[in-house]
Amino acid sequence: MKRGSMSVAAQGCLFLGLAGVAACGQAPQDVEDTFSSSVSVAVGGVCGALSGDTCEPGAFCAGLTDDADESGTCIVLGGCFSSDDCAHPENQAWRAGLSSEGSVACVEQQCVLEAAADSTTLAEGDACGFGIYAFCGEGLYCGGLSDFEEEPGTCVVQGSCKYDWDCFSPENQAWRAGLSSEGSVACVEQQCVLEAAADSTTLAEGDACGFGIYAFCGEGLYCGGLSDFEEEPGKCVVQGSCKYDWDCFSPENQAWRAGLSSEGSVACVEQQCVLEAAADSTAPPHGE
Q1: Are 200 and 214 in contact (CB under 8 A)?
Q2: Do residues 287 and 229 share a domain?
Q3: Which whole number is the average pLDDT over 224-248?
Q4: Nearest 5 degrees, angle CA 34-CA 40-CA 41?
Q5: C-alpha to C-alpha distance for 151 and 142, rounded to whole angstroms
Q6: What 8-state DSSP symbol labels residue 227?
Q7: Structural domain span for residue 12
Q8: What contacts 233, CB < 8 A, 6 or more positions away?
């Protein structure tokens, strides 16, 4: 009898039991053949509730869902189409010898144990992060990861960075040893730095300062020539000098006002801060 071609009448006989089969015109042996007609399916074959067939030894039926109208596919033990396949009772041989800790995941159609104690240790320059279930080795961390791009990072030396947030990684805090707890953290030339820290380098007169430079001008100097309209660094100049009028309002550039009237308009004249229209102005008003 061909499997799957049972008539309605014959199907009804199954409910009568073997004793009633003769009355329905079907021999007992035919019924036994019906129940034993499932075959062993090779890897790649269709399996599941619809087919009634089972996979050959060393394989299991993967890709099954809660939808009873869908079939699965026989694949080798340890393989998967989704993480649900890795939890299949017939697909647990791949876990032999692995840690009982860690999250199970399906990566490139293979079941893996994420963050397991026996994960491979990655070397400097190796890809890490998204989709890679292993850790960077000693003295390294996984840098360059982004919440906006599902791309792996790279195992790099602690203290290095690609983005500012790399410097906040719990695995990348060794660079802060001995530094002040005050200041803003930033990634500068692929190195984590503490902006405005007590141990910042002191800059000399004429040195670039400001945007992207995490150090301060020395005593008697301030960072002049900064502009809100241009993301360019300024220069360390003597207090009282200026490039723009607003340099004269810099909190670090107020020594020039000592002894001057509090009245009058502040201006930058010939690169010097002056109090314009004040009785004690050190320079004449514009136009004179």
Answers
A1: yes
A2: yes
A3: 85
A4: 120
A5: 12
A6: B
A7: 1-37
A8: 208, 209, 210, 211, 212, 213, 226
| DSSP-assigned states of every residue in 150-216 | ---EEEEEBTB-SSGGGGG-TT--GGGTTS-S-SEEEEETTEEEEET-TTPPEEPTT-EESTT---E
Residue 130, SS3 per DSSP? coil
Task: Output the six-digit token pair for 13.
Answer: 């006989």
Confidence class for position 161, pLDDT limits 50, 70, 90 = very high
Q: How far apart are CA 166 and CA 67, in angstroms?
A: 44
DSSP annotation of 18: G
CA angle (120 as vertex; 114, 126 as ends), nearest 5: 100
Same domain for 226 and 288?
yes
Give the side-chain half-sphere CA count within 13 A for 214: 17
Mean pLDDT of the chain: 75
Both tokens assigned to 254: 């107020």
d(CA 194, CA 180): 8
**CB-based contacts of 188, cutoff 8 Å, min separation 6:** 212, 214
User: Which of these, 163, 225, 158, lies nearest to 188 by C-alpha position?
Assistant: 163
Q: Are residues 279 and 224 in the same domain?
A: yes
**Per-residue pLDDT at 60:** 92
User: What is residue 4's three-state secondary structure?
Assistant: coil
The verdict on 214 and 288 lying in the same domain is yes
Question: 3-class secondary structure for 27-86?
Answer: CHHHHHHHHCCCCEECCCCEECCCCCCEECCCEEEECCCCCCCCCEEEEECCECCCHHHH
pLDDT of residue 217: 85
- Looking at the fold, whether 266 and 249 belong to one and the same domain comes out as yes
Name which of 26-40, 104-118, 170-184 the model is least confident about. Answer: 26-40
